[in-house]
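Co-fold these.
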Amino acid sequence: MAGNNMKKLNIGVIGCGFMGRTHSNAFSKVTNFFDVPYRPVLKTICARNGDRAQSFADKWGYESIETDWRKLVESPDIDLIDIASPNDTHAEIAIAAAKAGKMVMCEKPLGRTPAESEAMVKAVEDAGVANMVWYNYRRVPAVMLDKQLIDEGRLGRIFHYRTVFLQDWTISSDLPQGGEGLWRLDASVAGSGVTGDLLAHNIDTAMWLNGQIEEVTAMTETFIKTRKHNLTGKDEPVRIDDASAFLARFQNGSLATFEATRYARGHKALYTLEINGENGSIIWDLHDLHRLQFFDYRDESRLRGWRSIHVTDSDHPYMKQWWVPGLQIGYEHTFIHQVADFLSGLGSGVAAAPSFREALLTDYVTDAVLQSAANRSWVKVAS
Amino acid sequence: MAGNNMKKLNIGVIGCGFMGRTHSNAFSKVTNFFDVPYRPVLKTICARNGDRAQSFADKWGYESIETDWRKLVESPDIDLIDIASPNDTHAEIAIAAAKAGKMVMCEKPLGRTPAESEAMVKAVEDAGVANMVWYNYRRVPAVMLDKQLIDEGRLGRIFHYRTVFLQDWTISSDLPQGGEGLWRLDASVAGSGVTGDLLAHNIDTAMWLNGQIEEVTAMTETFIKTRKHNLTGKDEPVRIDDASAFLARFQNGSLATFEATRYARGHKALYTLEINGENGSIIWDLHDLHRLQFFDYRDESRLRGWRSIHVTDSDHPYMKQWWVPGLQIGYEHTFIHQVADFLSGLGSGVAAAPSFREALLTDYVTDAVLQSAANRSWVKVAS
Amino acid sequence: MAGNNMKKLNIGVIGCGFMGRTHSNAFSKVTNFFDVPYRPVLKTICARNGDRAQSFADKWGYESIETDWRKLVESPDIDLIDIASPNDTHAEIAIAAAKAGKMVMCEKPLGRTPAESEAMVKAVEDAGVANMVWYNYRRVPAVMLDKQLIDEGRLGRIFHYRTVFLQDWTISSDLPQGGEGLWRLDASVAGSGVTGDLLAHNIDTAMWLNGQIEEVTAMTETFIKTRKHNLTGKDEPVRIDDASAFLARFQNGSLATFEATRYARGHKALYTLEINGENGSIIWDLHDLHRLQFFDYRDESRLRGWRSIHVTDSDHPYMKQWWVPGLQIGYEHTFIHQVADFLSGLGSGVAAAPSFREALLTDYVTDAVLQSAANRSWVKVAS
Amino acid sequence: MAGNNMKKLNIGVIGCGFMGRTHSNAFSKVTNFFDVPYRPVLKTICARNGDRAQSFADKWGYESIETDWRKLVESPDIDLIDIASPNDTHAEIAIAAAKAGKMVMCEKPLGRTPAESEAMVKAVEDAGVANMVWYNYRRVPAVMLDKQLIDEGRLGRIFHYRTVFLQDWTISSDLPQGGEGLWRLDASVAGSGVTGDLLAHNIDTAMWLNGQIEEVTAMTETFIKTRKHNLTGKDEPVRIDDASAFLARFQNGSLATFEATRYARGHKALYTLEINGENGSIIWDLHDLHRLQFFDYRDESRLRGWRSIHVTDSDHPYMKQWWVPGLQIGYEHTFIHQVADFLSGLGSGVAAAPSFREALLTDYVTDAVLQSAANRSWVKVAS
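Predicted complex below.
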């Protein structure tokens, strides 16, 4: 029997794809490892296809299924709506959920456009409901350690930020677009290509660590111009960006390069970031996410070198809750950490970041990037 | 509600320390990710300290607690006894559980001595109960990929095996021995030091991959000669081996070096293994467990190099069940894989390895190592 | 006694700073390792400061010294003028040397401006003298191996080029500008900052490997606005670019990011390049210059990984001339290779690359970068 | 014209194979980079084959050749005899050279047996001539930095030493033994296999860094039992050790593992060493020789990690003489450093290490290793 002093929080998850799984796992495991004031209950899984929903419910122990998200949103059994469905559904669901007084979590990016995102922000703020966007990479222990170092001033004045997100899964021209698992190639569903899918992560982390981005100049490219569309069965123009890169200036005077692509052969999900400061630098990458590279200029000259920190000690962020030093955790744990922080925040009244409002700032940057690529000019970022 | 076609398997876990947690997590998560014919139910957690057991039960959702393992072993509610308690309890519990007709899983090493281990093997075989020892590192996807490569003959004739397990957590002379969390330094509880604790892992993997070890010459050392004992409150001689190294010859003619220590400053849990064959070589290490280094001599000469394989693709062992390529899993997943294999084996009638009998072979090697170190001579390994 | 069948080539080197040393070493060692039709003779070293020239001559075995480069250029004893002096002297010396009928080698970049460079090209072409620019990094064996792979079509269609040159030696605001060893911070001498000093290397290699760059959008920054000038003794505005980054499109349709800075704490001379093609990718970096990372998509799926090729085998470019496999060479050897290629080319009548004309193309790109940064717009590259 | 204040030192080198080249290069380059009181003059190269000697002389600028080493040793023109010929010639030449009053440098190992080595030590000491053995790896800047750290007490009490030397060039059974370039496989010429060829390096460095080795237990193996002999043209038994490994105890109480082999597929010349001390650890390897891995336990707990030190700064051993930070040197430079130290020592009266006497200690260890492998027992090392 579970601890009695934990309040239950009934969760309704919409979407049972990749993100439905990561979120379900997070809700399901968080209380095994973290002392939090609420225990998430996997109440209802919602998907249009009832069989798929049932199979997912069986896997994860959901108490019930639902095929109409509107009913889920209205259900009095549900405390929190978690949106893990494709991007074109985010705004409508989030706004309805907020109006129904539910807490709302939303997979990133918030909306397909700043207009959608602004409406979502307004909805949750008008309703006064707890809200959060799943920018999970902030909760990698090594990335959180970066944040600590920066907040402590250890890097000093920041000169450079350098980040890429490299994948290679869409290189084949035989890959179709649209439909289950491939909606990320369909601009009408996804909003954009790698800019919203990948660079949004880079941007969220960057602004969290290094402050506001002021202006950008960008280029985008679609290498494969047409692909068979799964929904029409015909060759259709590809309207997403396969690759996107931009130069940026931050408010703090530092310079940045950002790049994302799905055409970088050899890289599956290589999200890297590097920050160069006057007194030190850090490098992190997702392919070995449990490591942080740290260069400390204050080390004795002769013995300076990049330290490869195996971020698995009990004094590292989140790691006390896991195993023993040297034993690494992985990707899925970032979602567990985010739920843990959300639940702790619910208890203490401190909202877990990023809120919808904070995530909107990322959408302003991605929008400026797409504008700049279209206009071939520098673009100021809204804020 | 969970899938109806899965049979329940009621689990009683003994011990709620580090290993109690890894096992509980494995039983709890396996059906979220693997299609197996049985669903483990966390029925009862057993620990001498009732409060501790209750707190653990709350965390993990055990239905009940027990403070006397003898009662647990006799309970008709329990299908499988999982031994996650200190080494000095393994034999007695396992034998009693087998006699009570329960399936038995046992944390490694099997017993403190070959005599204990042999009695355990006899008990499970006499009772005809399913049994398994938690040599979890076999189930690291990268290590399982090694096994595939070797079984396919890709490395050719094997010349060398090279393996270490390096830690640094007992260097301080202020660290006491004995009692909660420190029984591994107390020879009467642990049986031996790093030989049984760490080298047992190296040996199990090595014989699984490369066959029987025939003879060894070893040295051991205890760097800190006395430590305060937590149970007596007094300084007591340290009787475990702090470090242990040996040379070995395998039945297949290959040579090996093995070394383990808790005095390797800078290494938290660095288990590494390297195999050199006529046509190729592999290297793996636990600090980046999701990577395999592979050298293929059949590559074009000019372009030969060690490949750093990020073992996260869907055609890698176990990985189809997890996330998407590039997203790494960690330490805890090896236990989930082992439970998945055990449950699949239960369904198909194929025992999951290593059985008690197979694990006994490792104990024969560790025994030979300790003998050799004491006698300063080469020792043949029993089998 | 040296081999009789080698013709002597009398060298006059101008400048005895860092580059004077690398060139002298190259001329001096080349015949120890390479079979070439000419033997360079270190005839005369030229520097304004006679004592410094004499000391340099003693170190390197020059037969004589000269303090007036005009006299050197006119000397009948000299076959080849090598320009290793600051950038503001390149054009004048090169043009005079060409007019005097000497072969000319010039340290990069060619001139401070395209106008200077064009005049230099015209001079050597009008005179019909052998000429070469010291873009030494082409001759790193690993980089030359890249070139082979690309020329063999192994990477397939190229999608991305990614390159940086990161240093950290000018971060301190106490560092003065101008004068001996620090002329690179003085725009009137250097022409530009990192754009001409560092990015020129990135660009030269990039166009050699991947073809013409068509257009760029750039940003530059000067982080420290004033520094004491060694020649005036006063604080003066810093007019060079401390950092420079640009996005580019190549003629072959691939996208690129370029960045150089002297404010990347922790990196001494980290020149890296990465190329992503349809069938494979390569990564190289100067800090471990004897390694090439190669990803071959045609490897068996399960066993794909980045190969770390230790480019020290006898079938690797230039390496047959050096030691035995596994024994690395370093930075200085790139200059030796360049001289070897130059001398072989003299014998066979094939000009060693890059010629002045080819190097001019790099200056067109650096010029476009500086223009773009000033104008905040995309700029087409001249060619 | 060379500096007038440097005295000439006339060198006679015996042997123009691989080591003849590394030594010639060292003598030839040392004064370009180091301020030393003597300038080596490449006076005479000696080899049995006159054509080969002449060709070598042409390459390197030797003034004359000689085909009979006895004449060279007696020549009044020669100040220093450098022995770069196969092992079976070392003792006879060194003793004759010493008797003739020449300084003597000898390629390692000293003799084929301790008896030969002892006679060599006696000869140079009786003659009172300067002497040195080419254990070049001490002069890798990163290894010398290790030495500094240890001498400063930064690692604290040493617990472990771990070293291997792995190659893969003799795996093919088609490779013959004996004769030019392959005498290392012929026991009568080489003395032993990898024990004297490779482990001698590991042992020399180890005792220099960590003190005397007291006892060993070893195993050796010859994987390919017969090979065609180039001198007889017939298949002959292979009498060298293809692989050799041993456990050791140092006088300071630390434990060690040593292993060398020519059957480690994928490793060309991977000499690695690791030292674990109470307060820190270091790792170095020859494949990236310009890097030192250093772990400092006194770093702040949360930020501890292995530092990858790029040993190319001007405050690193020897590096001030080379290029600028970040630009690596390679294998050949270790020989140049050794000559520089020898020449400086000549000037100051301090013998450069290792002397014949010091190198003899290494031969005692390799002898103990071979004895132990033969006797299957622990063996005390003579000293």
